[in-house]
Amino acid sequence: METKFEKLDELNACLSIHIxxxxxxxxxxxxxxxxxxxxxxxxxxxxxxxxxxLKKMVGESIIAEEVNKIASxxxxxxIKENELDILGQPMAQEDKNEKQDLLTEPDFDLHxxxxxxxxxxxxxxxxxxxxxxxxxxxxKAVEKELESIKRQYGKMEEVEQxxxxxxxxxxxxxxxxxxxxxxxGGLADKExxxxxxxxxxxxxxxxxxxxxxGDKAILDIREAFNxxxxxxxxxxxxPKEAVxxxxxxxxxxxxxxxxxxxxxxxxxxxxxxxxxxAVKGEEEFLxxxxxxxxxxxxxxxxxxxxxxxxxLIEEKHEVPLPDEFLKKWLVSTKNEHYNEENIDDQxxxxxxLLKKQLVREKFVKNFDLHINEEEFKxxxxxxxxxxxxxxxxxxxxxxxxxxxEKSSRENESYMNRVRDLVIGRKVKAEAKKMVxxxxxxxxxxxxxxxxxxxxxxxKQTP
Length: 462
Description:
The structure is a single chain. By secondary structure, this protein is an alpha+beta fold. About 50% of the residues lie in helices and about 20% in strands. The protein has helices at about 20-40, 50-80, 140-150, 200-210, 220-225, 230-235, 265-275, 280-315, 325-335, 345-365, 375-390, 400-410, 410-435, 445-460; strands at about 1-5, 10-20, 85-90, 110-115, 130-135, 155-160, 170-175, 190-195, 215-220, 250-260, 435-445. The strands form three sheets. Strands 6, 7, 8, 9 and 10 form a five-stranded antiparallel β-sheet that branches. The chain has a four-stranded antiparallel β-sheet with strand order 1-2-4-3, sandwiched between helices. The chain has a two-stranded parallel sheet with strand order 5-11. Helix 9 (about 325-335) packs across helix 10.
């Protein structure tokens, strides 16, 4: 057997395997003998079927199986021994691997395409400048937080008339036809809540302003929910796809108006927010609020720094790929998602993810990044807490967190997400050491304008 490696360019190679009869003859004969000992063929005693007859019956399949096994073993052995970094898996060249008469042509030449991992050099340096923002905690931010707390710990009371955008208006709705009458078979007597505060339409806000219990009005249901099909479907308890078929006009009849009575700013409120006796008096409460806000905005600034670092890493590293090889490999190995018709449209997203992964692996290799159990456990517990909060458990006890974390470890996808999270943090930490980070104070509103601008730009980037 002979193995020949041919590098076609920096990203593509071909591995050719020449297999002679001596390489497979003994194994094939051994399998034929085993088959003869077990075969039950009419007219012959078991174990006495003529070998020539067996070769005609199953010889080709046995030879093909053995030749393919030898070729596969040879390919992966060569890759391992020569420490080749490849993408995906070797792909047989169907055009070169011509069909042969396996019984009369004893030698075989098989050819395999290889996609090579590109050479990547980390390009970050001190000339790359990124800003770490320090948000200025102003009076407006503190007042907004206090208002939020008073609302959060307030109570809802039923009233006869709405007098604030914060009021929750519960109404029965009926779908109307073009003639303004209820549609037979349409949505009817469905109870829905409206919160004027979040409605964008000025005309609907005006309609709901000062509305009374028992009043009727006609609303454009789509505008009432800001033309968000998912929200409309959820509010009306219908599939998102069914929203398109709704008429726009609905009659509403107000059945209840709930008004938020904000919590009184006193020691009782302070105890509810921070725990009994944790703060004493208004001055300590305000100081604690400011400290918490400062820590929150520090976290927001650090998170945005991480986003900037990720953007910079992507921007500074142009990663070439063996695109045609990868498209062929994806169609062959993931045919439930890709085919010849959609691969060109779908490939860009797949290749972008691969490029990011390759750059990350370069960081891991260059800086010898590893995850120890303590780091994994910390990240896993944090992820578990976030998951439990999504399920509605805002303050889960330690025993519950430990139990869920332990059971989550049985899920391989979860384990991979935690590893990615920890390695991602380590990569960003190393990147921060390589670049110049400048501190800059900024107003809170201007900071979030920057975040919004970055996110909009990111959406527009193909």
